[in-house]
Amino acid sequence: xxxxxxxxxxxxxxxxxxxxxxxxxxxxxxxxxxxxxxxxxxxxxxxxxxxxxxxxxxxxxxxxxxxxxxxxxxxxxxxxxxxxxxxxxxxxxxxxxxxxxxxxxxxxxxxxxxxxxxxxxxxxxxxxxxxxxxxxxxxxxxxxxxxxxxxxxxxxxxxxxxxxxxxxxxxxxxxxxxxxxxxxxxxxxxxxxxxxxxxxxxxxxxxxxxxxxxxxxxxxxxxxxxxxxxxxxxxxxxxxxxxxxxxxxxxxxxxxxxxxxxxxxxxxxxxxxxxxxxxxxxxxxxxxxxxxxxxxxxxxxxxxxxxxxxxxxxxxxxxxxxxxxxxxxxxxxxxxxxxxxxxxxxxxxxxxxxxxxxxxxxxxxxxxxxx
Length: 371
Description:
This protein is an alpha/beta fold. It has two domains: 5-186, 2-Layer Sandwich (VC0802-like); 203-368, Rossmann fold (3-Layer(aba) Sandwich), CATH 3.40.50. It is built from nine helices and 14 strands. Strands 2-3-1-4-7-6-5 form a seven-stranded mixed sheet, with helices on one face. A seven-stranded mixed sheet has the order 10-9-8-11-12-14-13, sandwiched between helices. Helix 2 crosses helix 3 and helix 4 (203-214) crosses helix 5 (233-240). It starts with a strand and ends with a helix.
């Protein structure tokens, strides 16, 4: 094991934001190594050991853990690297004792392109496919019941194999917890999250991933107001869940959404919407507008105050049109906490572009978690 090192995977282009974030939130780490979508850091005082359960205060690290070095070398074959993975798996399993029986194994690739910049015909996951096949073949005889890339359970230890290049596999170790993604590399698999052919936009994927990551206690029969609803991807996702939706947007909604029971469109900017135009009881407020973050935050804050009697929580997507805006994220979170939200968390999700997802509950929303 490489003592005192950690790894993090992120969106391509977010590496500088991640480095600055850790410099601010975790001065005990220093930048060590970087490739597109993959960064490692070294602990200043390696004598102070970290455990796989350590938590990183990060918005831009989609997944992270202890870094335990590379599997093989650049000259190694996939079979030799797979044997190195198996050796590490066996050693970690033995060190964990009885808990080692539940050691999980995730094999995934770091991002190769920024979202929306993939070349025609690009297939995500292809780089890790051959690595996963080689590892599966190597592990089969000794661990026939092992399901590679199974979603993590809380408290479960995971050996991460990050395929940075076809010849460059990094190994990491983390313990799954509430604030982490259960998916390999923090990226939902296609079988878990697919875009329905009739969904109006990718906002469907962003919201569904955000709900899975946050654990927001949205239920059938709830009522939501969505700011910036056009053309209707997120509204469609909510309606499919049995949530009534009032969409606020001067843009046109897709006919698929307009025809669905439980949807109403207020076709004007949110700045001109009055409380009396909204449902008498609103459980959830969503916002995804292509505006400056301050405008998105203050618009959400105004409606939260007007809906405070019934509101359970906020699901907010904030555009970072310049990466320099990443430095403002802590201030955004503090502002929302002062507005009355608790358990506020933020993450750049796999389906986000140059934007982040922020989730927070009111105290009424927190009480629902225990119902």
